[in-house]
Write a structure and sequence with these properties.
Protein name: Histidine triad nucleotide-binding protein
Strand content: 15-25%
Radius of gyration: 14 Å
Shape: globular
Structural class: alpha+beta
Mean pLDDT: 97
Oligomer: single chain
Largest sheet: 5 strands, antiparallel
Pfam families: HIT (PF01230)
InterPro entries: Histidine_triad_HIT, HIT-like, HIT-like_sf
Helix content: 25-40%
Bound molecules: guanosine-5'-monophosphate, zinc ion
Strand order of the largest sheet: 1-2-3-5-4
Length: 116
């Protein structure tokens, strides 16, 4: 656990979250400010700053995040119509929380991938 990391604090149970899925290495919970009818974040329980960091440190865990994202989509009933899995990484992406998280978005047509 990293001090003052919001998502480490959610893993530790210090900050409440609506958990929808869990695996040995990951936790998935609803985004507090959803950008789509389904907006779930899949995080590693261990602290890694972004997707590149977890892929380098523990490729199996990176795969576990992707598998969990697919399970979340299935559980949320959006597998058939489709959904988007997105990792922000670094300043240009607008990453706000420096603890790896996959955004699982769906529940309506999501439109173009980028606004600009
Ligand atoms: P980022 O911009 O880093 O890719 O995404 C961070 C996400 O975390 C944002 O979509 C934001 O709404 C979400 N978020 C920020 N604080 C909290 C919180 O305390 N709880 C939950 N469940 N989500 C949060
Ligand atoms: Zn963390």
């Amino acid at each position: 656990m990293v001090d003052n990391c919001l998502f480490c604090r959610i893993v530790a149970g210090e900050i409440p979250a609506t958990v929808v899925h869990e695996t040995p290495g990951t936790l998935a919970f609803r985004d507090i400010a959803p950008k789509a009818p389904v907006h779930v974040l899949v995080i590693t329980k261990e602290h890694h700053v972004d997707v590149a960091a977890v892929a380098a440190a523990d490729p199996a865990l990176a795969g576990e995040v992707l598998g969990a994202a697919a399970e979340v989509a299935r559980g949320e009933g959006i597998e058939e119509r489709g959904y988007r899995v997105m990792f922000n990484s670094g300043p240009d992406s607008g990453q706000e929380v420096a603890h790896v998280h996959a955004h699982v978005l769906g529940g309506k047509p999501l439109g173009p991938m980028l606004c600009a």
